[in-house]
Structure formats: C-alpha cells, structure tokens
Fold this protein.
Amino acid sequence: AQVLGDPPSNAGRTCDCALPPMLPLRASLACRRLPRRLSAPPLEAFNTSRRLSTLSADHTPAPEFDLAAIRSELAVEHAHSAGSECRWDDASAPWHWLDREMSSNMAGETGAVCIYDGAAAALSLRGTASAETLRFVDEHREAERRHLELIECLLPPHKHTRLLPMWRAAGFALGFAPALVSDRALFKTVEAVETFVEEHYGEQIGPLKVHGRCPQLVALLEHCCADEVHHKEDAARRAGAHESLLERAWMAVVRFGSAVAAEAARRV
C-alpha cells in the first residue's frame, strides 16, 4: 500500500511521509518510506451515530454522509502515516497530508460563506442589484453553509487552521468590494474563486481515488466539488463569455490569492 503524506511545514504538525505521484509541486519535496502498520485509533470522543445529509446543487437530495465512518478513514490514514503512536483525535498528533488538506477545506468553506455575506451586505448597500443576483447570493451561500457544517462536524477543533479569523475578514472583503461595483464584477469574482476550488478539490480526490483510499471521504469531497462547479458555471453564465483585460487580470489575482490562502491554511 502506498501512503499519503506531506513534507514538514511547521513545528508540532510535521511528518516525513510519502506523497502520491499525482500531487502538485510540493510533492517533489517529499521522501518515500514504508508505511507504519498501526491499528486505527479509537474515536469514542465523537458521536459515532452522527449522520448528515444535504442537498445537491440542483436541490435534489444528496447522499447521506456518515461522519463517524469518514473520521475512521482519516484515523486509518493517520495510523499509516504518523510518526508517533498518537491517536488522530489527539491534539498533539502530527498532521498528515489529509489533515492539512481538510484544514484548507475548512478555511475555504469558511471564506466562501463570508464572500457571500460580504456580497449580500454590498448589494443591500448598493440597492440596485437585480432579484436574480440576490437569489444567486442566497442560494450559493446556503450551499456553502452546508459544506461548512459538514466539515465542522467532521473535524475536531484542533484540526482547524488557526487562521480562520483572517479568512473570515478576507472572504467578506472579497465578496463586498466586487458586489459594490456591479453584479458582473461579483460574478467574475465567484467564477475565479470557484475555478481554483474545483482544482483544489481535484488535487485531493484524484490521489485518493487512484490509490483506493477513503471512499466515503471521496464521496463527500466529490459532492462539495460538484456544488462548486455549479457555482462556477452559474456565475460564468450570468457574467457572459466576454472578458476585458482588467477582468482577466482581476480573476488571475483572485485565483492566486486563493491558492496562497489554501497553502497557508495547510501549514498554520
């Protein structure tokens, strides 16, 4: 079996595990070693009966997610990759690759909710937004809230990035400023953010599926990713195909900023 892992990044959250070959540039920094064969740590600290369902982007019922089973999958990955005997739910346990990715997912969904909060505030202040734009914000914000609830219920607090207050402020500003300018500026911003998010989820889903690991976590990630793709396509449709040079530059800045934020959330 091949182990999913990540190179050291900050004190207290390090491991020297191997990464699957599909991962991006940071994978080149990793080394390979044989997996540690440990039994999965017990998860009695969690409510093992908790199951959450949500709605897909087209408002049809989505699969029910067994969060206890997904935590068990994460615990098994930790047991295979951790450099100590610490349990996955132990606050002192080192973070492995999936911990870092889930931390970045937590940051991303937190920021996404705040983007729509900022957009709603700006549209209310502007007072000239169409009913369609207001509905766009409300529907997509509700989807992001459901994603955030899933991840919050899945991860113990010590697996959350410590930068959440920063992402809340940044997300609100990223939604507020474009929405204050125009509906189109908001749509292009959402399109740029969701373009990055689709790639970000794909970097997690791809290796896990290739190696046959964490099938229930993969199902949850695929569900979230499908919603994000819907948001991207909806925003692009509303904005139209033509892009000015300024819009292309702005979207590149947004995608780059999103990538930097995701990487910071993996490390802090």
Notes: Strands lie at 51-52, 65-66. The radius of gyration is 19 Å. The chain has seven helices and two strands. The longest strand covers residues 51-52.
